[in-house]
Structure formats: C-alpha cells, structure tokens
Design goal:
The complex is a heterotrimer of chains A (381), B (346) and C (402).
Chain A (H helix, E strand, L loop, with lengths): L20 H11 L1 H18 L1 H4 L33 E4 L14 H11 L11 E4 L10 H37 L1 H15 L3 H18 L7 H12 L3 H28 L2 H8 L4 H37 L11 H10 L11 H25 L7
Antiparallel strand pairs in A: 1-2
Helix pairs in contact in A: 1-13, 2-5, 2-13, 5-6, 5-9, 5-11, 5-13, 6-9, 7-9, 9-11, 10-11, 11-12, 11-13, 12-13
Chain B lengths: L18 E2 L2 E18 L5 E17 L3 E5 L6 H8 L7 E6 L2 E2 L5 H8 L2 E4 L13 H11 L5 H14 L16 H13 L5 E5 L7 H18 L2 E6 L2 H7 L2 E6 L2 E7 H6 L4 H8 L6 H6 L40 E4 L2 E3 L6
Parallel strand pairs in B: 4-9, 4-10, 7-8, 8-9
Antiparallel strand pairs in B: 1-2, 2-3, 2-5, 5-6, 10-11, 11-13, 12-13
Helix pairs in contact in B: 3-4, 3-5, 4-5
Chain C lengths: L2 H4 L3 H17 L1 H32 L15 H11 L23 E12 L6 E11 L5 H10 L9 H4 L5 H36 L4 H15 L2 H15 L11 H4 L5 H34 L2 H8 L4 H18 L2 H19 L4 H11 L2 H29 L7
Antiparallel strand pairs in C: 1-2
Helix pairs in contact in C: 2-3, 3-16, 7-8, 7-11, 7-14, 8-11, 9-11, 9-14, 11-13, 11-14, 12-13, 14-15, 14-16, 15-16
Classes of the chains: A mainly alpha (381), B alpha/beta (346), C mainly alpha (402).
Chain lengths: 381, 346, 402
C-alpha cells in the first residue's frame, strides 16, 4: 500500500540526530555546566570513598596504640592526650613526641614521604612511621584518613538512603495510585498519619534504641535473625540501623509524589489504549506508568540527598549516628568541639567541613541539572 | 497482509447471531447502564450518589456499517463507547458481540475479545506513550498477545505504518516528533495491529486542524473498504457525521433520543433535540442558509447525578406537554429504521 | 427566612453577624468544615504518636532511676521511687495474670461483682449453682492509660529527671519555660530569612544573567548546601573565639530571661539566628528569583511596560506583588524547617530550649518529659501541615477542600 491521499509533509525536526526522551534529557543535562561539574565531583568522591583502603590504612587511624580502631566501641579506653598532632608531623611507634616536618618543596622529599611515611607503613616493620598530613585528633587518629573514610559514610547514607526511600515510596505510591479506591484511601490515611510525626524526634528515639540494643548485645553470641542483623550492623559501623532510622519517615513524601504522578498518568489515553489491547496490570505499571512517573521522583530524591547527609552528620555530632570509632564527618566536627578544639586546634575543623559542603553542594547542583533535564513540567523554561 | 500475524477470526467468537433485514448484527447493546459513584466522608468514604453517565442505552451495529453517536459533551457518548469495549465495566445491561455476551468475560477470554474490538482516541497527544518509540507503540498489541517473532512483528509494523500513510522509516522516532495528524495515524496503526473487525472511534478528528480532519476521515473510509471494518463513530457535531456515517444515533443525558439512517435523520429529524442540533449546522447553499432558523435551547443540560423526572429533555424542550414530566418516553420505531423517544412524535 | 428572623433581639442579630463575619474571614463554610475535619483527623494521629513514643521509650534499656551516668541507687530506693511515680504498674493493660489473684497493693480494686457459676453435672449428676464474688480490677490502671488520662486534662506529669524530680517540677511547666527560648531563635530566624532572602532574589531576577545574578545564586546554593553543624563552628571560631564580639556561651542566663533591648541579648542571639536563617534565606531567595522571572514574562507586565511605565514601577508595583504569592507558600515547609532547625541549633550552641531538653531527657530516660516534648512537636507539625493547606487555598482559589 502506498502513501495515499496527499498526507501531510513528513518532515521532522532534527532528522540526523536520533532522538529519544532519555537521550534528550541527557543532552539537556549536559548543557548545564554546573551540573556536569557536580556529577564529576561526585564521581571523584565516590572513587575516593570506595578506594579508601588503597589510599590509606584504617589501622593508622589509631597510630599511638597501633590497634585498628574500627571496632572500638568505647573510645574511653584510648589514651587521653591533651595536644593534637599537628599537620605534616609524623608519629613513630612509642616516639610520638618527635615531630617530623614533611617537606613538599622538593620532589625527593615528596617521594620520600609517599614511600616511607605517608599512608602506608614503612618497609621496616620494627620502626613504623606515619605522617599526619592534615594532623590528627586527640586520640592520635589521622585526620586525613578519617576524612577519606568519612566519605564512605556520607555517600552511603546519602545515596543508599535516597535509593531506599525512592524504592519504598515508589512501590507504596504506585500501588495506592494505581489501584485507587479503598486501597488508596487506607494507604493515604496511613501516610497522612505519618506526616504528623516529627522526623528528628523519631529518628533520635530510634537511634537511641538501636544504640542501646547494640551495646547490650555487644560481645555476646547471639544467633538467629537478630544476631545476624546486629553483626551486620556492627560490621557496617552502625550504618544499617542509621538507614532504618533515616528511612523510617523519609519515604512518605516520595509516596505522595509517586501517587500524584501515577494518578495524573493513570487516566491518560495511552494507558487506556494499552488496556484496550489487553495489556496486563503489570505491563501497564512497568511499561507505561513507571518510565513516565520516575523522572520527577529521581529529581526530588537527588535534591533530598543533602538532607540525609546533614541528618547523619548531625546525629553523629550529638553521638547518635554511626558507632563510635567509625569515621564520619559529623563525628569529626563533634570531636573538635568536645575536646575544646574551637580554641586550640581550630583549623583542623576545616577539613571535614569543606568535605561536607563540597559533597552537599555537588548534590544540589546535580539535582538542579536533573530537574532541568527530567521534569517535563519545567522543561523549556 | 502478512500471513504470519493475521489470525483466523471465526474460531475466536461464537456463532453468528441474529440478522435484521438481511444484515448481520455485529454488536448489540441492550439497556446498557454505567453509573459512576460519588464518594464522600470524613475518614472513610461511602457512596452518596451516582453520576448516571449512561442510563439505559440500546442499539445495534451492523457489520460493515458506520454508526455515528452524536451528542453534546458530557452526554455519555464516550462512556458508552468505553463501556462497550469493557474499558469500563457496565453497571447493568448487556453487550453482545456476534451474539456472544461480553460483559461477563474475564481474564484470558476478555483478552481474546480485545483482539476483535479496538479504539481510536480523541487526543493524539495523550494517546501515545511519550516514552515509547513509534515501533514499540504499534507493536505493543502484538507483544501483549504474543503474536509472531520479533522479525515478523517488525514487518507487520512496517506494513501497518504504510497502511495508514506513514513512512516505515519512522519506527525509531518518538511521538513528540510528530504532528497531530501523524500521531492520529500512529494510533490508528496501533489499533489495526490485531486485525480487529469493530473499532470505536472516540472523536478521532475533533482535536485536529480542519485541513487534516478530512485526510483522517478519508483514511478511515479507505481502511473500512479495504479491511471491512465496522465503526462506532463518536462525535459532538453533526456536520462531519453526515459525510461519514450510514446511521446516526443522537444521545442526550445518558439516553438515546433518536436513531435513523443518516439521510433520513438530516432531512427528517423528529426529536426536538435533534432538530435543535441540526438547526445549528450551517448549510453551504446561501439561499437555504438565509432561511435557516436556529432553535436556541433554553437553559443548561441538567446534572446527570439528578436527571429530571419523566423525559430527560423536558427542562429544555420547546414543545413539552404534561406527560413529558410524568413518564419517560420509550424508543419507538416510528418510520422504518427510524427510532425516536418522544411523546410528541407518537 | 420568615418574619421571626427579622424580629430577633438586637444582641442576637449582632452575634449572628459577627459569626457570619468570622466564617467569611476564615474562607467560608467549606473552609470551616475542612478545618474541623482536619482537627478531628489529628486526634487519632496524636494518640498513635503517644503510643509509638511510649512503646519506644519503654523498650529502651534502663530507666529514669538507673540511667547511664547516674549514681547507682540501692534497689529499695528504686522501688520506692517507682511506686511514687507509678512506674510499678503494668505498661498497657492491667490484666490479672492466670492463677494469680491480686491483692490490693498491686492492683487497683474497683469493686466486686457477683457471678453465677454452675458446677457439677456429668456422671454424678449433681448440678449446683452458686454465686461467687469476683474481684474487679481496673483494666486501664496502667502506665500508658494513666498518662493518657492525665494528658487529656493537660496534666503531663512530673519530670522524672534526677535534677527536677526532687523539686516536683511538672513537665508542663518545664516545657512552658523552655518553649519561649526555642521560639526566640525560630521567630527571629524566620524574620531574618525573609529580610535577606527576598531582596537577594529580587536583585538576582532584576539583573538576570548578569554577574549580580550569578553571585547571588551562588551564595544561595552555597547557603543551602552548608549544614548548621558546619556553619556554627565556623561562626563561633570567627566571631566568638577570634574577634570575641560575642560570648561563646550565655553566661547571664539571658535565654531564659527572654527578649530585651540590650547589646548582650543581640550578642547571644546573633550566631544561632544567623545559622538558622542562612538556609532559609537561600531557599527564599531562589524561590523569589524564579517567581519574579516568571511574572516578568507575563502579559500584564508587558502591558505595563508598553504603557510607558518606568522599569522600577513595573518591577516593584506590578510584578513583585504577584511574584511574592508563591513565595508565601514556603511558610509551610519553613515551619517544619524551623522545628527541626531550632533543634539542631540549640544542641550546637547549647541553648536551653526544647531540643536540648529532649535530647537530655532521652539520655536520662525522663519518660514523661520525652512524651511531653514529642507531643508538642507533633502538635506543631500537624498545625503547620494544616496551615500549609489553608495558605494554598487562600492563594489559589481554584483548589477546593474535597
């Protein structure tokens, strides 16, 4: 059959370039320079976080005692010191009063520092030396190492927290919006109820509860699911329970958004067309609704990431975040404050602060870029 | 037609049913009702009223014909079309396709039925999923019904696009790159993919430019001839319907007030509502147009939640009498093939 | 209306008119219905929050009389204290356990009931009916329901904190003392947030795509990305430690004394308020800019320009008024933000407000105080949420309450 009855001219804009909504979104995203830079910064931070064990050794967190500090639950056992190791000084086993000024002026010195002192134990196991590039805290833990490992906590909390809340909210909202009626009514009443719970109050109560449970069962053998969860949480440095506490309420906003999106698309004619050809509910949800619904949700969740990072830092700051001994930027700032650091060794504060601000700033810019690219309501404005 | 994907049609549906005047009845709608509940309540909602969108509609569609369904917006004509296709489940009444009752079909048998009846939508911008390529959109019915291999589907999609006057080269394109008329063609290709015999066209041209409307109407007519399709053509204005339809049914507030063959209805409208509608259609002949007298209906359409007692039209009817406020008129055949529901006609 | 209405006594007519005026001011009967519905819906929410909080804090190990970091007391003293504060009662329901008949000391006996009991039958055939006296106990004489009954009478019980319980300090009174402290920070921060944010946003929009715009927006994004726990130490180091313009800690108990026109009050207020207002003003500035930019492209602004009005008049008279409407919608989220924000700021600056009290009482297992503060935060949050919806409707009449 030939083209008939003088159809309209079949010209399309941008003939050469393949066009597809996701590709278009990527093109729009790339136009936003700040967002692209932010994405790269996040990738670098992510790489630093996952390669932290390669860059620096966790054992030297606690250089003075020579023990790995990761599972130290009770920091009270660590030797109390009234002075901080200064930046660019080195500590030696048992000889920490002997500062060594690293020189970054000559290449040989740099090489020497890298090979011999910084990050890795020196080849001679009898005389280990570590260099405090950015100084250390009162218990002799290396500040740079803590910052690098702190990126793990912040990124994990931000990205995994956001993913968890996105998935939970999406499932909940899509079910409520798609099935409607009584199901929707009851599910949304539950969400309305949870909207009345003060977020920080619940998070603090849950964290106190989890911390106490973890402390009670610390060191005791415990089988079954509870034991498994406790062990897992301990291995994650307290992150598991933190996810649960942070995720306990954060999904409800996402559920509302997802439901609203589903409601607006559910009555669209293309969904009706799919139903008219006999598509199953599953196909309608996964092929027709999800791809259209997910854009604004991803944007909202990216913009929510700084919030998770703030909350983790704040909780660690008041001692209710990660387990003591697990490096976290919030805990580092708290460390400086509680040991009177605001008066003595104040510039050491800058390191975790800048790390925090750069990370959250990047996620903000990334979210803005994604919004321009993914939220069709704002496209073209 | 590609042999691989066209399916024998006789096996899927039951025996051929009643004949009237030697014509085969394809779809028979009897006393169809669709009420939408209105809910209210503080915490838990309960039903307080119902919108009577379709309130007892009966008609037959003969094989190979085009039946027009005309009425003002909100009169329930789209709901009728969707309820026939089981996109909405009817509140009561029956829909028979080739003599087989389809309102009680579920699951697999309903899915099989959907291959026989398809729909074309009003809004070409909302009826295509913006996240799917044209190829995927047109192939979706085949995928859903698991027809053919991937390659056979691609061939069928190309064939369908050509059939509706689009270049098969566009399969990788996305809907936002097309104009309204082109999108309507894509939607048409999708609904033809399963070789249906009955198509409900829900105002398929009213969202298009006037210049493109004629093209799409011509395409619909050509496809009807080539594929032997039967249309239920829903429209809100009578002028386009006359050109396209064999018979026309006029709806008012959830009920059919008049059905007749196209020419008969236009030359001899019997129901006062039809007369009023027709008086609004401009006539191309200036001499006739000069004499045309518009019947202006007073008032608004009453709410379908609370339709008036007696005849639905009594609130606006220029010729109403006492009985119109008491009893509801039946749809009666007053002339051969011309049915009217009005106390003043009988 | 019949004639009787016309002959109403004068004072009743006034009453009716006043009522009508109030209804109209609130936004009509639909608004009143909406408010009543939302307030009614809040009751089960608050009940559930009480229940959840209660269950959570009682699941914590330890109690108010043997919390971590307190001097250990002999067991008999703990028992005495428990009895004094009613903590020896069951948590939720006062049900007699099987085979155990309570005596007066453990169970609140509310009376006796006569019950007919039929015994015998079977092989012996001797059926006997006797009347037994059965002890009735109060099912709701439990910690939770006693608290609930008290809370309904706005009696939130005595604080269990070691420092307060000996002086018999009531939770309600303590909250009433601490709430104004938190509110000082919150209110001043909101004021500062608007005072900084709106001009910044207007500036950025008026000088759209110039250096001014870029700088303003860069600082706005930076402000949003800087958490209080970063900003606060930086401010403290600069202004309290280095420049010594402000004290690090309030030594004169000024927070509790409340607002006054003095340099010292300004000094202790400055840093917490700036910390809290930075994030707020950043959001407000971005919103103002976006909204004003949109309005400047509207037809009526173009008309105003076409009339030959001065650019300044166009922006400040025609555009800004309309651009600020969406900005007003931020008040809702802002209220929730203030709630959380004061919490964080209080802990960082050791301000004796509600947030500080809450964290301290969690550590001290001060059950009554935790319940009281949680309840108060929930009430604020629910009122804030209702307010958001009300503001939206006032601003956009198209939204209706259904």
């Amino acid at each position: 059959m030939a083209v008939a009855e003088g159809a309209e001219p079949l010209t399309l804009a941008g003939e050469e370039k393949p066009s597809n909504p996701w590709l278009d979104a990527w093109r729009l995203f790339r136009r936003n320079k700040a967002a692209v830079v932010a994405l790269n910064v996040i990738i670098v931070i992510f790489l630093i976080a996952i390669s932290a064990p390669l860059l620096t050794r966790l054992e030297i967190l606690d250089a003075r005692t020579g023990e790995a500090a990761r599972h130290t639950i009770n920091p009270v056992n660590l030797p109390q010191v009234d002075s901080y190791p200064d930046p660019l000084t080195c500590a030696r086993d048992g000889q920490d009063q002997n500062p060594y000024w690293c020189s970054w002026l000559s290449e040989e010195a740099l090489l020497e520092v890298q090979n011999k002192y910084c990050f890795r134990p020196a080849p001679d196991p009898n005389q280990r030396q570590w260099c405090y590039l950015l100084g250390g805290d009162s218990s002799g833990k290396d500040w740079l190492t803590q910052t690098v490992y702190g990126a793990q906590v912040s990124l994990a909390v931000g990205v995994l927290g956001a993913t968890m809340s996105l998935v939970l909210g999406l499932i909940y909202g899509v079910i409520a919006g798609f099935y409607g009626g009584r199901v929707d009514n009851i599910m949304m009443r539950i969400v309305d109820f949870m909207y009345g719970i003060p977020y920080l109050v619940l998070v603090i109560l849950l964290q106190v509860f989890f911390t106490e449970v973890a402390r009670t069962y610390q060191g005791t053998e415990r089988g079954g699911l509870v034991g498994f969860v406790l062990d897992l949480n301990s291995d994650m440095g307290g992150l598991l329970f933190l996810f649960i506490a942070l995720g306990s309420l954060s999904w409800i906003g996402m559920a509302r958004l997802a439901r609203g999106q589903v409601l607006s698309y559910r009555e669209k004619e293309f969904v009706e067309a799919a139903r008219a050809v006999g598509a199953s509910n599953r196909r309608i949800i996964f092929v027709h609704l999800l791809p259209n619904v997910i854009g604004p949700l991803i944007v909202a969740e990216t913009l929510a990431i700084p919030g998770y990072i703030f909350t983790e830092a704040f909780l660690s700051f008041i001692g209710l975040g990660v387990q003591p001994g697990t490096p976290s930027w919030g805990a580092m700032i708290s460390e400086v404050r509680t040991r009177g650091g605001f008066f003595s060794n104040r510039f050491i504060l800058i390191v975790p602060s800048i790390a925090l601000v750069i990370t959250t700033l990047s996620f903000n810019f990334l979210g803005d870029g994604l919004r321009d690219a993914l939220d069709p309501r704002l496209r073209g404005t | 037609m590609s042999q691989a994907v066209s399916e024998p049609r006789t096996s899927s549906v039951g025996a051929t049913a009643a004949y009237a005047d030697g014509k085969e009845v394809l779809v028979e709608v009897t006393d169809l009702k669709k009420y939408f509940p209105i809910k209210s309540g503080i915490l838990f909602q309960r039903e307080v009223a119902a919108v009577k969108a379709v309130d007892g509609v009966s008609f037959k569609v003969y094989k190979g014909e085009t039946l027009g369904l005309v009425g003002e917006s909100g009169c329930g004509k789209s709901t009728t079309g969707r309820t026939i296709l089981q996109l909405y489940r009817p509140t009561s009444g029956s829909v028979k396709y080739r003599g087989q009752e389809i309102t009680n079909l579920k699951g697999e048998s309903l899915r099989r039925m959907r291959r026989e009846m398809q729909m074309i939508f009003q809004d070409p911008y909302a009826s295509l999923n913006p996240r799917m390529s044209v190829g995927r959109i047109v192939a979706e019915p085949l995928v859903v019904h698991n027809i053919g291999t991937k390659k056979e589907r691609e061939e069928r999609v190309a064939e369908l696009l050509e059939m509706v006057g689009l270049n098969p080269y566009f399969v990788r394109r996305y809907p936002h790159e097309f104009s309204g008329g082109q999108r309507q063609r894509i939607g048409l290709a999708r609904s033809l993919a399963l070789n249906p015999s009955f198509i409900v066209a829900d105002e398929p041209i009213s969202a298009l430019d006037v210049s493109i409307q004629a093209q799409v109407v011509n395409l619909l007519q050509r496809l009807q001839e080539e594929l032997g399709l039967t249309y239920l053509f829903i429209a809100h204005d009578l002028s386009m319907v006359r050109h396209l339809c064999d018979r026309v049914a006029v709806m008012y507030l959830g009920k059919i007030v008049e059905i007749a063959e196209s020419e008969e209805l236009y030359t001899n409208p019997l129901h006062p509502y039809t007369q009023a509608l027709l008086s609004a259609v401009p006539v191309p002949d200036p001499a006739v147009e000069e004499k045309r007298q518009r019947i202006i209906l007073k008032g608004d359409v009453p709410s379908p939640i609370n339709p008036p007692k007696g005849c639905n039209f009594n609130t606006r009817c220029p010729v109403s009498i006492d009985v119109c406020f008491e009893t509801e008129p039946e749809l009666v055949e007053v002339l051969p093939g011309h049915w009217v529901a009005c106390h003043r006609v009988i | 209306m019949t004639a009787t209405t016309k002959r109403l006594p004068a004072d009743q007519g006034i009453l009716k008119n006043t009522l009508n005026t109030i209804v109209r001011m609130l936004g009509g009967t639909s608004m009143i219905k909406f408010l009543v519905r939302r307030l009614l819906a809040a009751i089960p929410v608050l009940l559930a929050i009480l229940l959840v909080t209660f269950a959570l804090i009682h699941a914590l190990p330890g109690g108010p009389f043997n919390a971590v970091g307190q001097r250990r007391m002999p067991d008999y003293m703990v028992e005495q204290l428990k009895e004094k504060f009613g903590l020896n009662k069951p948590l939720f329901f006062n049900t007699p356990s099987d085979g155990y008949f309570p005596d007066g000391s453990d169970w609140k006996i509310i009376g006796y009931r006569n019950e007919q009991v039929t015994t015998g039958g079977g092989q012996t055939g001797g059926v006997r009916t006797e009347v037994r006296r059965v002890l009735r106990v109060d099912l709701f004489d439990s910690q939770f329901f006693n608290y609930l009954w008290g809370a309904l009478r706005l009696d939130f019980g005595p604080s269990l904190n070691v420092a307060l319980r000996d002086q018999n300090v009531q939770v309600g009174d303590e909250i009433a003392r601490r709430l104004p402290v938190s509110m000082q920070v919150g209110i001043f921060a909101v004021i500062l947030g608007f005072a900084l944010g709106i001009p910044l946003g207007v500036l950025a929009a008026v000088y759209h795509n110039t250096l001014v715009d870029y700088f303003a927006m860069f600082f706005a994004v930076l402000g949003q990305a800087t958490p209080a726990i970063v900003l606060a130490p930086v401010l403290i180091i600069i202004f309290a430690v280095e420049l010594q313009w402000v004290p690090v800690i309030d030594q004169r108990n000024q927070w509790r004394a409340g607002p006054e026109f003095s340099l010292y009050y300004l000094q202790i207020l400055a840093l917490p308020v700036i910390t809290l207002a930075t994030g707020m003003s950043a959001s407000i500035a971005r919103l103002t800019r976006a909204s004003l930019l949109q309005v400047l492209h509207e037809d009526y602004v173009r008309t105003a320009r076409a009339k030959g009005l001065r650019e300044r008049a166009v922006i400040y008279v025609h555009a800004l008024k309309n651009a600020l409407i969406p900005v007003a919608t931020i008040i809702g989220p802002l209220l929730a933000g203030v709630l959380t924000g004061t919490f964080v700021v209080e802990l960082i600056y050791t301000i004796p407000g509600l947030g500080k009290v809450f964290v301290d009482s969690v550590a001290a297992r001060d059950y009554t105080m935790i319940m009281g503060v949680s309840l108060l935060y929930s009430v604020f949050l629910i009122i804030g949420n209702i307010l958001v919806d009300v503001i939206y409707t006032w601003l956009d009449p198209r939204i209706r309450f259904d």
